[in-house]
Every structure is written in C-alpha cells, then in structure tokens.
Amino acid sequence: MKKILVANRGEIALRVMRSIRELGIKSVAVYSEADHNAPFVKFADEAICIGPPPSNQSYLLGDKIIEEAKKIGVDGIHPGYGFLSENAEFAEQVEKNGITFIGPKPEAMRIMGDKLAAKHAVKAFGVPMVPGTDTAITDIEEAKKIATEIGYPILIKASAGGGGKGMRIVHKPEEFEEQIHMAMNEAQSAFGNNAVFMERYVDQPRHIEIQIMADTHGNITYLFERECSIQRRHQKVIEEAPSSLLSPEMRKKMGETAINVARACNYVGAGTVEFLMDAGMNFYFLEMNTRLQVEHPVTEMITGIDLVKEQITVAEGKPLSFKQEDLKINGHAIEVRVYAEDPTNNFLPDIGKLYIYRQPQAEGVRIDDGFEEGMDIPIYYDPMISKLIVHGKDRKDAISKMIDAIDNYRIMGINTTLPFGRFVMTHDAFISGKFDTHFVQNHFSPDHLFEYQKEVSEVAAVFAGSHMESEKQKYKKAYKDNKQPLSAWRTKRIR
C-alpha cells in the first residue's frame, strides 16, 4: 500500500497515522468542520472535509468516505475504533470498491457483532460461557421459568451493541417483566434491534480481555491479557497489562481459548476477546471486539509489538512478523483514559476550552492524544482528551510512574478524570489487586476528590500565572525587537 485513509478522528486517527508514516506510506485524513484545525488533520499528508460536525453528517458517511478515497487513489482504509470500525456493510463496500479494508472480514464482524450469533459460533469450540439463554427471549413467561432454573440475580443483555445499553440486573422474580421490557426498549432505541437474552449474573466479576492477532496464512497468536475491571457506567476508564490476578497457567489457558474464539469466525487482523472471571477464578466468554481497542497501547508497551503496523501488513497479505514463542511480557503498563468529565458529578461530560494543556514528560510515559492548548472540546463526540500510558519494570513501579505523570499533567479549562485516576492509583484495593468491576460503587465517592482538586487548582493557578507572565514578556520582547504593534487578540490575551 502507498496511501491509507484513516476513517476516524482525534487521538486514534493521529496514533494510526504515526505508524502509517513509519511504514513509509502516505496518510489521508477525513474530518468534520469541527475538527478542521485538529492535530490529526495537520499531521496527515492529505486531508478532506466530509461534512458538518454531527457524526451522522460526517464520520458515519461511509459511502462519501469511499467516494473521496477513490478520487485520490487510496489503497487502504483504516477505521480506528468507534464510528464505522465494526460496520460490516462499510467493510464490504470498501472491498467491493477495490480498496483494502484494514480489519477483519465482514462475516466475522457480523458473527461477533451479535452476541447470540457469537455464542452459537464459539460453542462448537468448547469456549466456556455463563449459564443462560443462547436465543433471543420471545416468551416472557417461559423466560421467567428459565431464570428461576438459572438462579437469581439474572443479567438481561441486548444482543446487538454494548456499552451497558440494554442491560438490566434482575434480583427478584417480581422485577423480571418490568426489567425485560425496559431492556428491550433501550436496545431498540440504541441499536434498532430489541433482541435480548439473559445470563446468570456473575458476582464480584473481573473483566479480563485477551489481545489476539491473526493473518491470512492461518497464524493466530495471543498477546497476553489486559485487566479492564475499573469501569464507570459499564465502560472502562483504567486498564493495565498484565493482570495481577492471572498465573502463567491461567494466562495460557485464556489465551488459547481466545484463539479458539478467533477460529470460530475465521478471524483476520487485530481483535480482542473479552472474558468475565468470577471469584472462583472461572472465566466465561463475554464478547469479541472486531477492531483495535482503545486500550491497545498497554499491550504494545509490554510486548514491543506495534499493533497498527501488524494490522497493515496483515491486510497486505503478509504473515505476522512474530510467532507465539517470540512473545514475552516485559514489565507492566497502565493506561488512564483522560476524559473531559467531572468525576465529582457522576462522570458527566464537561465542555470548554483547553486554556492550559501541558503533557508530562518522563521516561516510560506515553500519551496518545488529539488536542492542543487553546482548542475547544467539541460537544459532538466522545469526550476523551487523551490516553495516559506508563510502563514500569513491575506493577509497583508503573503505579508510581502513573501518579507522577498525573501530578505533572496540566489541564485547565475543563474537568477531567485525572483526579479519579490518581484516586485509583493510591487506593488499597487497587494496589493490592483485590478489586472487581464494582470498584467505583464500592470504593469511590466524590468527597475523596474535593481536597485533591483544591490542591490541583492551587498548583494550576500558580502555573497559569507564570505561564501568562511568560507570554507577556515574550510579546513585549517581540514588540521591542520588531518595532511593530501586537495584534489585537494577542494584546487582549496577555493583559
């Protein structure tokens, strides 16, 4: 491939383009009017505006993206994650138009994009699953009987989609009918499909996922696990690799199970198999994400493998650049997702301007971001600002590095999840490794952050003051040296 279009935005678009450039390939950005000045647009070799800010008028316009790609002779399209990344119809149309889709085949997307179809596919490979129904619920009275046999509490889940939508926990039989109707209505609204199924609710669950990579030559490998149990609203906020919970034997067993899941749908490319693990160390298949994951950097940090480069070379028909026996775990990595959210207000999104944006600079610190100082946080998209990743010689070292990195990450103008990330890093449950997906509800209260936020605000105010004084001196010197008046906006800014 000589030219690849990245059908995405923000930090993931920029991260993908960096690997594209390192491979000596030209990159193309597509962007909405809201992102016209974004770093990923500036970084790309070519950039095309595809519409107004709302994603359904820009980033979700698959036909328009393909049309623009054909005009400029694009060889491949990388979808990143979100938007069109798991859209089988888009992948199919890309291929039909003579362009390589850098991802799995459409049929694999279809199978794994429907949780019931996925359960059916992996069943033949002996993949362990949580006891429950493997068909959509159509008869509520019959479903009540099955729920009693499985045992309460019961978890009702939407067959399509994810992110906690269409999900309900039912604790008692008398709640069943109301909760299933609510789940079906939410699933219909979110995914256009009201099919739901149910499983036994796993108490004290850990969310552990396995990164897999497969090529077109029959090679499938697992690149170890990621611990993703720190979540809010059923969505991850902190991830680490490896998990402090797994023994080498359990890691191997889960990795080989993930490979079987990939075989069940003839998978090609980078994918993630997600498992729930109960208090008794029994693990169950949850779902497969047929794309690159947000948290993929922690896997890259402990393996030294660039997953995006592997995606591209696999899409070109080449074999994987490594074998299973080549892979070793090197140290420990942690990722904190930095969202424009207020953790003291139920993690509600926050919007505003990044008046000050300074990244921490230290050995073992990586930041994947898509913003610069002075930019506004758009209201149209996911509120993620960046991913803060650290790598240490062991878990203790990684936690220490993450605390230092958070303390040296200067963001003013909006609330972020950085204070929450620091709270987690210093909590006994996290440090000991004895936590589950209920960490937030069991251990977190906004009160824990108020004092820390006060300290951060005081430090930021001092930082802002010195920053503004520096700005004043810089422009006074420019005026003196050049004998020219300052522009109006500069004058207003430094007063």
Mean pLDDT: 91
Strand order of the largest sheet: 13-12-9-10-11-14-19-18
The end-to-end distance, rounded to whole angstroms, is: 51 Å
Helical region count? 17
- The fraction of residues in strands falls at 15-25%
**What count of domains describes the coordinates?**
3
In the CATH scheme, the class of the largest domain would be Alpha Beta
Helix/strand/pairing category: alpha+beta
Poorly predicted ranges: 474-495
- Looking at the structure, the CATH topology of the largest domain is D-amino Acid Aminotransferase, Chain A, domain 1
Number of strands: 20
Main sheet, how many strands, which sense, barrel?
8 strands, antiparallel
CA-based gyration radius? 24 Å
What's the CATH H-level homologous superfamily of the largest domain?
A: ATP-grasp fold, B domain
Helix content: 25-40%
Bulk shape: globular
- CATH architecture annotation name of the largest domain: 2-Layer Sandwich
Account of the 3D structure:
This protein has about 500 residues and is of the alpha+beta class. The protein has 17 helices and 20 strands. Residues about 475-495 have low confidence and may be disordered.
Give the secondary structure arrangement, pairings included.
Blueprint: E1 3-6, H1 10-22, E2 26-32, H2 39-43, E3 46-51, H3 62-71, E4 76-78, H4 88-96, E5 100-101, H5 106-113, H6 115-123, H7 140-150, E6 154-158, E7 168-170, H8 176-191, E8 196-200, E9 206-214, E10 220-232, E11 235-241, H9 248-264, E12 269-277, E13 283-289, H10 296-303, H11 307-315, E14 332-339, E15 341-342, E16 348-349, E17 356-358, E18 365-369, E19 384-392, H12 395-407, E20 410-412, H13 418-425, H14 428-432, H15 439-443, H16 447-482, H17 488-494
Parallel strand pairs: 1-2, 1-4, 2-3, 4-5
Antiparallel strand pairs: 6-7, 6-8, 9-10, 9-12, 10-11, 11-14, 12-13, 14-19, 15-16, 17-20, 18-19
Helix pairs in contact: 4-5, 5-6, 12-13
